[in-house]
Amino acid sequence: MIISLKKIILKFVFKQMVMKNLFFYVAAIFIVVQCSSSSEENISKEDSPTKEIKKIILEEQVAWTTGDAKAYSAHFDENGLFTNVFGSSFTGYTEFLTRHEQLFKGIFKGSVMKQSVTTLKIYKDVAVVETITRISGFSNDEHLAGIYIDEKGFLNTRLLQVLRKQGKSWKIIAYHNVDIKKGVIIP
User: What SUPFAM superfamilies does the record point to (predicted)?
Assistant: First the structure.
């Protein structure tokens, strides 16, 4: 049975509506609109592991844009490794969740994140996925010192995630994010 990505997003939107948070509702609707039926059709034509990984990427976008750290961390492994754009490294689900709770309450509160998959390799029970992320609508102040923000105010990153199949689900075992510096061509 093919799971509809739009149905998953709309369930999430409904949950946010119940919580009466209009901003999150509007942001999630924006993501649904961005996920046109053609992209859903493309995903439905792909093999199951590819669909599963792309679904995780889409869920990350929705969770980020709605500021939901728990949902953003849902696929992170209990012992996963995490390196952020500042080069700080953390280990484990709890650290990953805590950092994103801080980000979504602080500098990235109200921001919108889009991801474009540039590379997706699947090897039996391991997947490597690289995305270009584009974050907008954040507070560009001293907290981002040393991080390149482009002339349009976007933070662009290269996010490399390594996932391992555990039972029926994929878990992120490594998450490495780096900002794309001025002069580097974004694919």
Answer: NTF2-like
Residue 28 token pair: 């999630």
Q: For residues 164 and 97, what is the distance between their CA atoms, to the nearest angstrom? A: 19
Helix (H, G, I), strand (E, B) or coil at 88: coil
Between vectors from CA 88 to CA 82 and to CA 92, what angle results, nearest 5°? 30
| Look-up of token digits 């390594």 | 162
Query: pLDDT by residue (tens digit) across 92-129?
Result: 999 999 999 999 999 999 999 999 999 999 999 999 99
37 band by pLDDT with thresholds 50, 70 and 90: very low
Question: Measured between alpha carbons, how far is 91 from 122 in angstroms, rounded to an integer?
Answer: 24
- Please give the DSSP secondary-structure letter assigned to residue 3: P
pLDDT-based confidence at 57, cuts 50/70/90? very high
What is d(CA 86, CA 30) in angstroms, rounded to the nearest whole number? 29
Question: Taking the CA atoms of the chain, what radius of gyration do you get in angstroms?
Answer: 16
160: CATH: 3.10.450.50
Q: Which domain holds residue 16?
A: 5-179
Closest CA to 24 of 68, 66, 70, 63: 66
Which tens digits make up the pLDDT trace of 63-81? 999 999 999 999 999 999 9
Q: Residue 112: inside a domain, yes or no? A: yes
